[in-house]
Amino acid sequence: MSSTLKGLGEAKTYDGSALRIGIVHARWNSTLIAALLDGTLKTLKASGVKPENIVVQSVPGSYELPLAVQRMYQASQQQNSVLPGGGLVSAATDLLGGSTTDLTAMGSKTSESAQQKPASVEVEGNGGSKQPFDAIVAIGALIKGSTMHFEYISDAVSQGLMRVQLETGVPVVFGLLTLLTEEQGLERAGLDEGRKMHNHGEDWGSAAVELGVKRRGWG
Ligand code: DLZ
């Protein structure tokens, strides 16, 4: 047992080498998102998930996450493969500097920030396993403003992601930061001054591997 009160504590490590993991991230608040995505990828790879079995996609904002996760999983189930030429599973993300033919075409322009490429992102899933995703990580960062917008979106996305995982049976890791201030976001993305806080994306990567492995046992 860990001596700290909060957090995951000391977790058993799981072998992710047979898993296929999806990540869908929002592009709003891209500095936070890039760091969180990096953290997630870091632990996925450290747990043995093969880079070619990690598929990363983006959507404009957090509100779009539930539908994107649902479609990403369904496409992997139905086709059992990476679709050539524009299917949801085959499209590259903005953050990866690839084409933006899929969910990113839902009405938003490619923002300047979306051109950022997180340092540790090297590949996406083309050429990897053809199996349906074992787990999908949804990453977003909502920052409270002066209207009720934050409350409505936080609630809708939380409920939507839970619904997707219960309806599809695929574990959906809740990588949505619901932040009262930007500072809270920097801390949770490991970008605080002095870099003392840990990157929550790392926990999300571990959770995806643990759930992916356990789900295979659940049948
Ligand atoms: C519109 C909006 C605002 C104001 N703030 C955020 C935010 O902090 N984080 C985020 O992920 N998305 C934000 N969005 C965009 C919405 O999630 C959504 O993309 C748009 O309302 C279009 O459906």
Automatic annotation (TrEMBL):
Functional description taken from the UniProt entry: Catalyzes the formation of 6,7-dimethyl-8-ribityllumazine by condensation of 5-amino-6-(D-ribitylamino)uracil with 3,4-dihydroxy-2-butanone 4-phosphate. This is the penultimate step in the biosynthesis of riboflavin.
Keyword line: Riboflavin biosynthesis, Transferase
Pathway in which this enzyme or protein is active: Cofactor biosynthesis; riboflavin biosynthesis; riboflavin from 2-hydroxy-3-oxobutyl phosphate and 5-amino-6-(D-ribitylamino)uracil: step 1/2
Keyword Transferase: yes
Organism: Extremus antarcticus
One Pfam family it belongs to: DMRL_synthase
Stated name of the protein: 6,7-dimethyl-8-ribityllumazine synthase
Matches recorded under PANTHER family: 6,7-DIMETHYL-8-RIBITYLLUMAZINE SYNTHASE (PTHR21058:SF0), 6,7-DIMETHYL-8-RIBITYLLUMAZINE SYNTHASE DMRL SYNTHASE LUMAZINE SYNTHASE (PTHR21058)
Keyword match Cell division: no
Catalytic class of the enzyme: transferase
Stretches for region Disordered: 104-127
HAMAP family listed in its UniProt record: Lumazine_synth
